[in-house]
Amino acid sequence: MYLRVVSQSLQPEGMSKRLGVEPDESTSIGSRRYPQSPPRSHATWIRRVGAAGGCDRPEDLEQVVVGWGPDLADALGRLADSGEAAVSLVIVQEIRDLDDPQQKGIFLGADLLAWMGAAKASLDIDQYIYHECGDEADNAIS
After folding, report:
1. pTM for the structure as a whole
2. Taking the CB of residue 70, how many other CB atoms lie within 10 A of it?
3. Alpha-carbon gap, residue 26 to 56, rounded angstroms
4. For the chain, which terminal residue's Cβ has fewer other Cβ atoms within 10 angstroms, N or C?
């Protein structure tokens, strides 16, 4: 899970100044992903939530985001209202075991939704399902 702010007019330093917080990672307008890539037309400001392994469920991470406080949420909301940036909370869900109920479903509590509302943040859910598709006929015979 991470908080992403995207702007076509502000560089990450300007976003940090307006938000009063530094990002965990960022990209600048005009930077390139690879030397042969075209220059970026937008800047991104990202604040990560959770463990490096990425195994946490969204409901386990809510307290981290809410813990960033109402001041950050309000600053994000003002930035979004200015039209200079778009704010989103991104949840990345990986499902590796289709039979494991802990890997499926997303629950967002009222406190997180209220924080997102103050931040004027959209919700972006990226889901990746890793499943081996075997030949069902062969499996049924053996």
Report:
1. 0.81
2. 13
3. 23
4. C
Q: Does residue 15 contact residue 43 with C-beta atoms inside 8 Å?
A: yes
Mean pLDDT of 89-113: 80
Task: Find tokens 């990425």 and name the residue.
Answer: 54
Residue 7: its H or E element: strand 2-7
Query: In whole angstroms, what is the distance from residue 62 CA to residue 41 CA?
Result: 31
Cα angle, residue 111 at apex, residues 102 and 85 outer, rounded to 5°: 100
Q: What dihedral angle (degrees, nearest 10) is formed by the CA atoms of 24, 27, 28, 32?
A: 150
Q: What percent helix, strand, coil does the chain show, rounded to 5?
A: 35, 25, 40
CA distance 23 to 4: 9
CA 122, CA 95: separation in Å to the nearest integer?
23
pLDDT for 25-62, tens place per residue? 999 999 999 999 999 999 999 999 875 455 566 777 88
| Per-residue model confidence as pLDDT tens digits over 71-88 | 999 999 999 999 999 999
pLDDT at 141: 44
3-state secondary structure of 86: strand
